[in-house]
Amino acid sequence: MARRMILTLVVIFGVIGILGFVKFRQIQTAIAAGAAWAPPPEAVTSIVAKQEVWPGSVSVIGTVEAVQGVMVSADLPGTVAKINFESGQAAKAGDILVELDTRQERAQLAAIEAQRDLAKVNYNRMEQLVKEGVISKSEYDQATAQQRQTEAQVGEIRATIERKTIRSTFSGILGIRKVNLGQYLAAGNAIVQLQRLNPIYVDFGVPQQTSGQVKVGRTLRITSDDLAGQSFSGRVTAMDSVVDEATRNVQVQATLSNPQVKLRPGMFVQVELGLGTSRSVVSLPASAISYAPYGDSVFVITDLKDKNGKTYRGVRQQFVKVDGTRGDQVAVVSGINPGEEVVTSGVFKLRNGAAVQVNNKVQPSNNPAPKPQDS
């Protein structure tokens, strides 16, 4: 009985040992296969870096401002008696926009004009009497003062009536009307925007290290994403005398012709300002640049070796310095050499040392002056 039990235990332990050895070999084989596994190469497009000469320019963001722009408002309190304009229409200098109720002032004017006429009659009479020696010089002086005082009062009331007639101070385009007939306006209440839109200003800032190259009279080009395919040219007309402490930029103002009134105050625009000098750069498609907080980089395609010494086609991440754009292109001023092959699409899925397979059947856009078909 004991011999049978021992034999049974020996057989069981033998089977367990054989199974354990087989499993151990399977795990070793899986580990070796995992260590030898490599991800398949990533499909990318590429371009050979070339050196180009770009005209010296700086691209910044600007804001459109009116050459003249005001919010027309009430000078004196009163009730709106008449509105002589429609929202959005053009106005000429001196056009009457709004008339406030002046019935009380006109009644006062009639009363004071009557007093003025009486004072003038008394003055003429006193002038004759003082010549004849009938009255004293002091009585004559009092009549003179009374006549001048009533004249001044007439002028004051007429000025009040004129101030309640609100006019366009210059020629321009009116905005949306903010008052209604019969509405009471306090002094300073807004009535309508008035903007002169041709010509028009564009204000923008340039870095302090570039400000020395910006001169009054330099030409520039303005574009806007809202006006696809259109550009506007202008000239620098003024520069600020100080550097902004917050941004270390110098504010610049340019003047542009705007005959079709396509540029409106407050619009966001892109400004390309020529600096008059040329520079040598390596231009790459914008899609080739991997932007990151710790620095911009590109992936250079080259021959690499794996840990077994086998050569494969892979990428090396290279940090670069970019300075300016032109259409679909980015100017690289350091970090890349002409002749190196650079990945132009698919950079988001790459890492340093990754294997790649180049397929250039479809290339990303690389046009220095693109003209989008859709807008």
Describe this structure in words.
By secondary structure, this protein is α+β, with helices and mostly antiparallel strands. The protein folds into four domains: 93 residues, conserved putative lor/sdh protein from methanococcus maripaludis s2 fold; 89 residues, Elongation Factor Tu (Ef-tu), domain 3; 44 residues, no CATH class; 62 residues, Orthogonal Bundle (Helix Hairpins). The chain is built from three helices and 19 strands. The strands form three sheets. A six-stranded antiparallel beta barrel has the order 2-9-12-11-10-13. A five-stranded mixed beta sheet has the order 15-14-18-1-19, with no helix packed on it. It has a four-stranded antiparallel beta sheet with strand order 6-5-3-8. Strand 16 and strand 17 form a beta hairpin. Helix 2 packs antiparallel against helix 3. The longest helix has 35 residues. It is elongated and about 165 Å long. The chain starts with a helix and ends in a 17-residue tail after the last strand.
Report a brief summary of the structure.
This protein is α+β, with helices and mostly antiparallel strands. Helix content is 25%, strand content 39%.
CATH architecture level-2 label of the largest domain = Beta Barrel
Compute the gyration radius: what is it?
42 Å
| Envelope shape | elongated
Quaternary arrangement of the chains shown? single chain
What are the secondary-structure elements, in order, as H or E? HEEEEEHHEEEEEEEEEEEEEE
How many individual domains?
4
Largest sheet: number of strands, sense, barrel closure: 6 strands, antiparallel, barrel
